[in-house]
Design a protein that fits this description.
With 412 residues, this protein is an alpha+beta fold. Helix content is 21%, strand content 32%. The chain has helices spanning 126-135, 198-209, 231-243, 282-291, 309-317, 346-353, 381-401, 408-411, and strands at 2-14, 17-29, 32-36, 43-48, 56-64, 67-74, 80-86, 93-97, 109-112, 147-153, 157-162, 167-170, 176-182, 188-194, 223-226, 248-252, 259-262, 265-268, 295-297, 303-305, 330-332, 337-340.
Length: 412
């Protein structure tokens, strides 16, 4: 069953934490249908409600390689769309991207929105409630760095919604699943497939969506130590591990670019250049450690501190996301302020790719009141920005490692 509606969704953001409020003003069931002519192999259905003049939705249904049903919904008037799918009380549901609280999603509702996880996973816990009162930083069972509108059912089918708009996967009812999409009047496509085996179903999905490459073999040969404080401390912790016969395969130093002091404690200085004061001789140590089988890994994100020279360079070139007035959007990250590289701008994308020498983390904090060079992505990139950034990281790895190593995937 398809339903459409009008209303507003408000996203109140502070330091990467979001409070989402949905105010639904209209909720219209589309109970009348008729068939319309379409291309060969397509079924075109028009859904409507006679009581509302504009309550008409065009649905295109066809099969494609790897999918038994592909359903595209075109809604030109209403902001919201809900799709109901039949369920039963004993069904199990998995997916929703990176969900931390529940493996089986049945019985719960999951907004798909990229944000900080916050403190705690339960709003009834005292520390979480205090963090909400302090700065809105309390977490909940559904807060995640990466949600994805995809789910697999124990009834041996999957559903994937091809959107980066705000959406909700609602599995609370015993008798149906409900998918809500704030589609902004743009076509939304649903992909369905079945298989007699859950294992084969997952394999088919990943073959279509994309499969991650295997991790390099050296990852499995020892421990990975997370270290801060400079070259001397880094080597000191490694020596301590070796004296206790602990195999170490890597050292992760997130403060390689330096630090700054805030009321929250020491934070990283997001000017992604080697800080030689904190980490003297790091270039030589990286080579020496690699020769003995220990890699050095670091951290980078797509935000640049406005006090750094990289921000000034990017700002001069117009490479940052803009605010509503067309100026660089500078965001408070907790007593320091940053611009975010506009990855929909090809020149900015290539510029920032040149900085990414390491396997790097995805973006987790982006406000929705901003403008991108490609305007159609403006609101949806809160969900999709991490995907863009992941592409950039992967492209950077290929760009820098492939020419120097015939088996580049083993060199990383």
């Amino acid at each position: 069953m398809l339903t459409v509606g009008k209303g507003t969704t408000e996203f109140a953001e502070k330091l990467g934490n979001f409070h989402i409020t949905e105010n639904i003003q209209q909720h219209i069931k589309l109970g009348t249908f008729s068939f319309a002519p379409g291309p060969i192999g397509y079924v075109i259905v028009q859904l409507s409600n006679a009581s509302y003049e504009n309550a008409q939705v065009l649905v295109s249904i066809h099969s494609s390689p790897g999918h038994e049903v592909v359903m595209s919904v075109m809604n030109h008037y209403y902001d919201y769309m809900w799709l109901k799918l039949p369920s039963d009380p004993i069904e199990h549901v998995y997916g929703g991207g990176e969900q931390y609280s529940y493996f089986d999603l049945k019985g719960h509702r999951f907004p798909i929105w990229t944000r900080e996880q916050g403190v705690g996973r339960n709003k009834s816990v005292l520390i979480t409630r205090l963090m909400d009162l302090y700065d809105g930083g309390g977490g909940d069972y559904d807060t995640t760095y990466y949600g994805q509108p995809t789910f697999f059912s124990s009834r041996k089918y999957y559903c994937h919604v091809n959107t980066t708009s705000y959406s909700v996967l609602n599995f609370r009812d015993d008798n149906y699943h409900q998918i809500m999409v704030l589609n902004g009047k743009s076509p939304t496509t649903f992909y369905f497939n079945t298989n007699s085996s859950i294992k084969n179903l997952v394999q088919n999905f990943t073959m279509w969506m994309g499969q991650q490459t295997g991790l390099p073999n050296w990852i499995y040969t020892g421990a990975m130590l997370g270290i801060q404080g400079g070259t001397e401390k880094m080597l000191g912790y490694l020596k301590q591990a070796e004296e206790h016969n602990i195999m170490v395969t890597g050292l992760w130093i997130q403060d390689w670019a330096g630090t700054l002091s805030t009321n929250f404690g020491q934070r990283l200085f997001w000017n992604w250049k080697w800080n030689q004061t904190t980490y003297p001789n790091l270039d030589k140590e990286i080579q020496r450690l690699k020769a003995k089988g220990v890699r050095v890994l670091s951290y980078i994100n797509p935000h640049l501190n406005q006090e750094g020279d990289l921000f000034k360079e990017g700002d001069k070139k117009g490479y940052f996301i803009k605010d509503e007035n067309g100026g660089t959007y500078v965001q408070d990250f907790g007593q320091f302020y940053c611009g975010t590289v506009d990855l929909t701008n090809p020149e900015a994308y290539d510029w920032y790719k040149g900085m990414c020498f390491y396997v790097i983390n995805f973006s987790d904090q982006q406000c929705n009141t901003t403008m991108y060079r490609d305007a159609k992505f403006s609101s949806s990139l809160v969900v999709g920005f991490g995907i863009f950034y992941s592409y950039l990281c992967y492209a950077a790895i290929l760009f820098y490692l492939q020419p120097h190593c015939e088996t580049w995937h083993l060199c990383m």
